[in-house]
Write a structure and sequence with these properties.
It is a single chain. This protein is an alpha/beta fold. 35% of the residues lie in helices and 19% in strands. α3 runs parallel beside α4. The longest helix is centred in the middle third of the chain and has 19 residues, at 133-151.
Amino acid sequence: MRVFLTGATGFLGRAVAIELEARGHVVSRLVRPAPSRVLARQDIVGDLFDALSYRAALVGFKPDAIVHCGWWGVAGANRNDRRQLDNIVATGALVEAGIAAGARIFVGTGSQAEYGPCGGRIREDHARDPTTLYGVAKVASGQAFLSLVEQAGGRAAWGRVFSLYGRDDEAPWLIPSLIRDFKRGQAPAVTRCEQVWDYLHVSDAARAVVALVECEAARGMFNIGSGEPIALLDVVTTLRDMLAPEIEPLFGAVPYRPDQVMHLEADVQRLRETTGWLPRVTLLEGLRESAGVQGP
């Protein structure tokens, strides 16, 4: 299959590109021009937010599928920046360009932020009440993505991704921040870590995205998570024991946010039953890899 991929230089997008190629697909990455960037023969130089910059090249590539991992403003204060709304327009333009180029399979990546401050085990039909512009834009983009493809007679899936981690992840996310602090010999300042969270290794998330591409029955919304929540306290102490057992984390030094979710867990039954996907990387294996620690 010939697959056009946005966001290929991001955390999840890089893993998706690797998984697609491992599965024998021909991948064309949309990449912005950069002096030091090495391009593969099929790559397309362009800007997600300027469809004219890649539209003609996409027609020339003749994609069977479009995988949309690209997004502006994933972390920090950017999550409430008005430019989040530009992502909605860019997503619609991408779908239109893909349809014009002949693609009939479309898979996009959403976020747990679409659900807002809910708690417990979350299914795809749970009410959506996002509290950030990031979440609002993801909801709108997902709805537009599915609707535009359906109107064109194609097949579309939107994967709502829960918390990811892995070796190439970076601060400000919790796991890479903990690894950085422990390796520096610093005691990380954290909450009381009573939260129960759903963490999925990025390679397993990439396999889920590719499963949605390959499975003809995959249509609509899907949660992408481990389905096996863990207490954040266990994550912190496991990394501490791996990297700096003499350090005592500063539990309670960071207060809970007013809208703090204490239990967030992805119900991934629909993904499993539709595609047969199952996670392969245990949390212990994934944390060791992320921390660069050898272990059995």
